[in-house]
Write a structure and sequence with these properties.
By secondary structure, the protein is of the alpha/beta class. The protein has 16 helices and 15 strands. Strand 5 (162-166), helix 5 and strand 6 (205-208) form a beta-alpha-beta unit.
Length: 490
């Protein structure tokens, strides 16, 4: 239905005139119209039923019906326009108004019953009508009781952890009528992250948003926007380095990709050549953004229910590890810190039992940062193997002067508070700019930087905010059978 052009017609009848409503429904049905929605509306003088009927648009439609609305994609405009109030305060006021109107109706019927000129049939009809209206009044009073109850407020104390908001133009991407849809894509993303990192992302909620510009989507974590970008349905997305010999023109849209920092060209599918690389559809790009944010914001996404599931897996395989470690040597919060730090840097925790064995080996480390370093060392061969391309690992390193400057960020003068790290933003920007220029000149998708172990984690935390997709390894982690090639110094 979403791909068909539909016609909508709006008709109104008084709520008191049931015969008029019945005639309207029958006449519209005979004319080939289906009832789309029936909504009660308040006017200055009465309460009416607002009936919206729909049918597929005819090629040569000669109807004289008025108030026709043509919709070529989503029916969301109409649904939003007629949506009932969701605020408990507004609902309470609406029910109170309905009760007042209902009492007026009952009063009118009562006054008619007091007339001396009523026939027996009229009196029976009015009595039946009075009975129906009194039942409706009781229902409204009960609805008001439910609405003003404090218990209903508890249902509002909840939050959607992971949401994707879509502008009106791209709502069709959620439609299950298309094989390439966002619901299926999120399942694919969840499966990929589970297979690669042992990380299961939560349920993702999709919403429409009026705050977005045309063809925009955004991602929110705990109702805080963390990502926004444009997608073009009917186009394919290519990175500039994938389009060898092709120059984008006025039919294409070229933007900077917020995920990689590289130029991304959206090209109409009709202009895409068969021999090109596949590129990305709008759905695939949103899936890429979901995966990117799932990793980048893992510390806010993963909760203690997830941590408990990891613990349960280990308990089933080796309960000794859990009994020996938690909580005497490591707390649940320490475990969450360790797992989220590893996932944030794309280190797999899928082999969770082996990971717990390593935690048990190094549980006496004085800080959780030290424990993280030791666990990463135990996984260093796996880390390098996952990063290497065709048996080669291309690495960037700092010069001695840069290392001395970076080391100064974390080792303050004796007179200063050691718990406070003061970093010169200009120095960080200079380092990040040099790395970003190197990334562009070398066409690196995922730059890899090697630093001393004691600096590694904090260097990653700082530079990851300025250099997209950066990986920071400790020099001690550069082990394995792959060829380590230092390609530049900063």
């Amino acid at each position: 239905m979403y791909n068909k052009k539909m016609q909508y017609v709006i008709k109104s009848v008084p709520t008191e005139d049931k015969q008029a409503l019945e005639d309207l429904l029958n006449n519209m049905s005979d004319a080939g119209w289906d009832l789309y929605t029936l909504h009660e509306i308040e006017t200055e003088s009465s309460v009416d039923f607002n009936c919206i009927f729909m049918r597929e648009k005819q090629e040569e439609d000669s109807t004289d019906l008025d108030d026709i609305v043509n919709v070529t994609s989503f029916k969301y405009r109409m649904e939003k326009m007629l949506a009932a109030p969701t605020s408990p305060y507004e609902s309470c006021k609406e029910i109170q108004l309905k009760i007042a109107n209902q009492k007026d109706r009952i009063k009118k019927i009562k006054s008619q019953l007091e007339s001396d000129n009523l026939s027996g049939d009229d009196k029976n009809r009015l009595n039946n009508q009075m009975s129906d209206e009194l039942k409706n009044l009781d229902s409204l009073k009960q609805a008001l009781v439910n609405e003003i109850s404090p218990d209903t407020m508890y249902s509002n104390i909840k939050e959607e952890k992971f949401t994707v908001n879509l502008s009106e133009e791209i709502l069709d991407l959620v439609s299950m009528e298309d094989a390439d849809n966002l619901l299926a894509q999120t399942v694919k993303v969840r499966q990929n992250l589970t297979d690669k990192l042992g990380y299961v992302i939560p349920h993702i909620h999709f919403h429409n948003s009026d705050d977005l510009n045309q063809n925009e989507f955004s991602i929110k974590i705990h109702d805080i926007e963390v990502f926004r970008a444009i997608v073009m349905p009917g186009y394919r997305a290519y990175y500039k380095e994938e389009l060898k010999g092709y120059k984008p023109d006025e039919f294409d849209l070229v933007i900077e990709d917020p995920i990689t920092g590289h130029k991304l060209a959206w090209i109409p599918e009709s202009r895409v050549k068969d021999f090109w690389v596949k590129g990305m559809s709008a759905v695939e790009y949103i899936g890429k953004a979901i995966e990117y944010i799932s990793i980048k914001e893992v510390s806010d996404i993963m909760d203690y229910n997830d941590i408990n599931k990891f613990v349960e897996i280990v308990m089933e395989n080796n309960s000794f590890l859990v009994d020996n470690i938690i909580p005497d040597f490591i707390t649940a919060s320490d475990l969450k810190y360790l797992l989220t730090c590893l996932i944030r840097e794309r280190v797999s925790v899928k082999n969770i039992v082996y990971l717990f064995e390593k935690i048990n080996d190094y549980a006496n480390e004085p800080t959780k940062e030290d424990l993280l370093d030791k666990v990463r060392l135990a996984f260093s061969k796996h880390i390098v193997k996952d990063l290497a391309q065709e048996g080669e690992l291309k690495v960037i390193e700092f010069t001695d002067d840069t290392l001395e400057m970076v080391d100064g960020f974390f080792h303050q003068n004796d007179s200063e508070d050691e718990s406070v790290i003061r970093i010169d933003a200009n120095d960080v920007n200079k380092i990040a700019d040099k790395i970003n220029k190197l990334v562009k000149s070398k066409k690196l998708i995922r730059p890899i930087l090697a630093v001393p172990m004691e600096l590694r984690h904090m260097v990653f935390v700082i530079l990851s905010e300025f250099v997209p997709n950066i990986t920071v390894l400790a020099n001690e982690e550069l082990v394995g059978d792959d060829d380590i090639k230092f390609i530049a110094t900063i």
